[in-house]
Amino acid sequence: MKIVLATHNRHKVEEMKAILVDPLGDLKDRIEILSLEDFPEIGEIVEDGETLEENARKKARTVFEKTSVLSLADDTGLEVDALDGRPGVYSARYSGEGATYLRNNQKLLKELEGIPQKNRTAKFRCVISIIGDRIDDLAIGEVKGKIGTEMHGENGFGYDPLFIPHGYEITYAEMGSQVKNRVSHRSLALEQAKKILYRLTT
Ligand code: IMP
Description:
Blueprint: E1 2-5, H1 10-20, E2 32-35, H2 52-67, E3 70-80, E4 87-88, H3 101-111, E5 121-132, E6 135-147, E7 163-165, H4 177-183, H5 185-201
Parallel strand pairs: 1-2, 1-3
Antiparallel strand pairs: 3-4, 3-5, 5-6, 6-7
Helix pairs in contact: 4-5
């Protein structure tokens, strides 16, 4: 069975592929994974929903309608309790026009200035929409943690240098990608997605 990952982000494609076709997993010989690189005619899909669910479904639906291939799209947000859940669905664009990972992290540090460790709790939420002929389903992964007071680590992307998952004293960016792939919000959501895909292929 073919599936297409509805993202242009190469980093994400690699991370998702690594988890979905985990060599010991049951799906390895059952699915062939494509990405939007295989469908260059599909341009950027505007993420204008008010929730992660809306955005993920819009991306998966658009790609399925254009390719007729089972589509899997994710949308992720960092929800910070002291900021009433912001940046949330706006995580990518948090620092405004031309936002970069660095500027987003700097803005987050500034907004949390003076807030003590115990009140710096946050969670990453990843929503994956799977849309195909016979299916329209969601897989969700959440990881709770806290926002550090300075950036640490070189790996990963986005808010990785600031996010310390619960049970760890290091940030996502200080973990190797293998460790992050085991514990991250996206890997939890993908594990759910794998179960859904597995059911579809049997
Ligand atoms: P997206 O929906 O996966 O593109 O995520 C939106 C934004 O959330 C990204 O631009 C990143 O800033 C942030 N983000 C998503 N996943 C991660 C992650 O695994 N680590 C750190 N930041 C992330």
